[in-house]
Design a protein that fits this description.
It is built from ten helices and twelve strands. The chain is an alpha+beta fold. It has two domains: about 180 residues, Ribosomal Protein S5, domain 2 (2-Layer Sandwich), CATH 3.30.230; about 170 residues, GHMP kinase, C-terminal domain (Alpha-Beta Plaits, 2-Layer Sandwich). The strands form two sheets. Strands 1, 2, 3, 4, 5, 6, 7 and 12 form an eight-stranded mixed β-sheet that branches. A hairpin with a 6-residue loop joins strand 9 and strand 10. The longest helix has 25 residues. The chain starts with 9 loop residues before the first strand and ends in a 5-residue tail after the last strand.
């Protein structure tokens, strides 16, 4: 049951997008990932209503306002507003009788870029409702509720890494996410102190998790786990990779499983280097991760592969696609004095190949979701 917080009727909260430093498609396999919250954020202003209606609006270009019942079931709200409706649905389905509301969304997280814009929106709504109605839910519970909204209301079979990164992000730290224990440990990652920059290249190739490619790979991994007699691939993580793969006879399945097992190992190796203050040595792990996503998981596209290749040629220490794949963004770890050169080289290469001009910017680990200080 919702309990209004000190009689408040309106609150504003925000949640960051994320960049995943390394650890792709591991979360729904019970594995490890190493994301960081980024400065770009989604903001949700929520004012309660007493008529059982949600009116959702967004400042995003082309986002039409939506009006629907607070108890709308999955499938009844579509488009961008489904992300808002899904959070209300998940909370109410869990027994929290949140009322209708006017919800206004504003976001600086690029959409379709693999930077978790949808989860930033959902988490912003969730933390705001949690505060407004005094629900008292911890951050891990909120992450699981947002995942349920994404999976069952929106229809995207995502894991929990994005939500946990958005909720647990810390300035100057990446987050070691363990999907089996549902823990998020901060790992120091002061790139400027190491003379490094993390360059993001938004390739402008749109990607979305509701397409079939993401779900197909998840289904293959779940089938492989069943054949191996385990609940998730994490349970065979300590075994020799070749021994595990030798128990599978489907080539596609072998490649998918090999990516997951080797990617988990790369995450842990990256954490060890960061904790030892050797951030300048993680580049080859990032590049190996990209090769695995390209060759074993088959989730990269030509523009993404080009951006990685050019970034490395321009002086990046390592580069990889970040996010669910099939487009989106590339990250490149570069010496700080080479960051501009990397961006310029990628832009020039895209122009030569006739691709749309990418958006290039740098990011740093930022704070996680919270309530805005200017709330009344």
């Amino acid at each position: 049951m919702a309990i209004p917080a000190a009689g408040l009727t309106e609150r504003t909260g925000s949640a960051p997008g994320r960049v995943n430093l390394i650890g792709e498609h591991t979360d729904y396999n019970g594995g490890f990932a190493l994301p960081l919250a980024i400065p770009a954020r989604a903001t949700a202003r929520v004012r309660s209503r007493d008529d059982g209606v949600i009116v959702a609006a967004s400042t995003a270009p082309g986002a039409e306002p939506a009006r629907f019942a607070v108890d709308s079931a999955p499938g009844e709200v579509t488009g961008w507003a489904a992300y808002v409706a899904g959070v209300f649905w998940a909370l109410r389905d869990a027994g929290h009788d949140v009322p209708g509301a006017d919800v206004t969304i504003d976001s600086t997280v690029p959409t379709g870029a693999g930077l978790s814009s949808s989860h930033a929106l959902e988490v912003a709504v969730a933390v705001t409702l949690n505060d407004l109605h005094g629900l008292g839910l911890d951050r891990t519970t909120l992450a699981l509720l947002v995942q349920r909204a994404e999976n069952q209301y929106v229809g995207a079979p995502t894991g929990t890494m994005d939500q946990m990164a958005s909720l647990y992000g810390q300035e100057g730290h990446v987050i070691l996410f363990d999907a089996t224990s549902m823990t998020a440990q901060p790992v120091p990652c002061d790139l400027p102190a190491a003379g490094l920059s993390l360059v993001v290249v938004d390739t402008r190739v749109h990607h979305e998790h509701t397409g079939g490619g993401y779900g197909a790979r998840r289904a293959t991994c779940e089938e492989a786990a069943a054949l191996l007699g385990v609940e998730t691939l994490r349970e065979v993580q300590g075994d020799a990779v070749d021994d595990v793969l030798g128990k599978l006879d489907d080539d596609v399945m072998v490649r998918r499983v090999r990516h997951v097992l080797t990617e988990n190992a790369r995450v842990l190796d990256t954490v060890a280097l960061l904790r030892a203050g050797r951030a300048d040595e993680i580049g080859p792990l990032l590049t190996a991760s990209h090769a695995s996503m390209r060759d074993d998981y088959d989730i990269t596209v030509a523009e993404v592969d080009l951006a990685v290749e050019v970034a490395l040629d321009a002086g990046a220490l390592g580069a990889r696609m970040t996010g669910g794949g099939f487009g989106g963004s590339v990250i490149a770890l570069a010496p700080a004095d080479a960051a501009d050169r990397v961006g310029d080289a990628v832009r020039s290469a895209f122009d030569r190949h006739g691709h749309a001009s990418p958006s290039v910017f740098t990011v740093r680990p930022a704070a996680g979701a919270g309530i805005e200080e200017n709330n009344q």
